[in-house]
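We include the pair:
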Amino acid sequence: MTAATENDVPNTLKTEAETPVKTEADTESKNAGEAKKEELEPITTDNVVVESHVAAKVVKQLEYYFGDRNLPQDRFMLREVTLDNGWIPLDTMLNFKRLASICSDKPKIAKAIEDSGSELLVINEDKNKVRRNPDKPLPKNTDELKLANNLKTVYVKGLPLDLTIDKAEELFSQFGKMSYVKLRKNADSEFKGSVFIEFVEQADADKMVATQELKFTPESDNLLIMSRNDYFKSKNQNVKQEKNVKREAQMGGTEVKHEVPEHVEYEKGKILKISELEGIETSREDMKTLFEGHGVSWVTFNKGDPEAYIRFEGSAQEALEKVRVDEKFILSGKESSPVVLDGTEEEEYWKKSAYEKAEFFNKKNRKRKFDGARGGRGRGRGGRGKRYRRD
């Protein structure tokens, strides 16, 4: 299993196949495609010993690359399997960083496949190439299959930003065997704190969705868990509402209220709180200047406020460490002790931010409606009307 970049388009019944997921193999295909096709030396696995946990990971990763979930959508793999009757050299497979990070020793990889008893993988006689078992053809990509896969997929939010695939598998394997785990990332390839998990069996997905409490660590907050379809329905409703609001505002129609979504999606670790600002002569500009070059995207502060909140494009903790002087944080000549929001306080910040954004647009729409009722520029009573030239 491997991470993938988020490419899903909000649509109630939008399937993964309709909007292809970029897999690790797809992302690295450019490098892999540059591998030279040379005469391959046979590999000997006699007396080769592979640690059991390494062998299991190697086979699992290769089964992912050649599996039903990845292969139909992976342009590089699909091209490679057409070149040599389905066989792909181990040299080529080792261009995939995740496989190479597990094991880069070709004899050990060959030995792992050879001894695995895998029904999906086949090693050639020279033990230097691998392919998908021809007796296991890919299933037809039907609408029924897409819908079935969607029902097996679970959305989870609230995970730490340093999450790895291995950590995710360790946490979620308690619910059943998984086909893949997809780390959702933003445009800068930064993990957003949420994942999609597809299980082999729908019953396991249903069991996870029914879980009332699940934490990444005993000290952390409960994770938000819902089915993939419910997630996209919720997201799609929010998108439709935004479009309706804009349309009504443009047409000068009836007022449509912006609602704060039930589940506010946000990336953890981006908000810095600075307290005890009473009596300190400072401003938003001072804060922006202090953190200049460290990705400040928003500052919530008015003169006289006892505290300020600074939102960063990246990690707030990293930005904080970069501006400390002798491990002290100095703002406008005064030392203070800022903290990075987490837990309930962080969630409340984002909820309040979403509420204020909704109120802003509601107020803007009410003003437009009022201006429209008055006639605006050149319409109805109160408009500038027709002008006549004075002789």
User: Anything to note?
Assistant: Residues 1-36, 378-383, 385-391 have pLDDT under 50 and may be disordered. The longest strand covers residues 191-199. The longest helix spans residues 343-374.
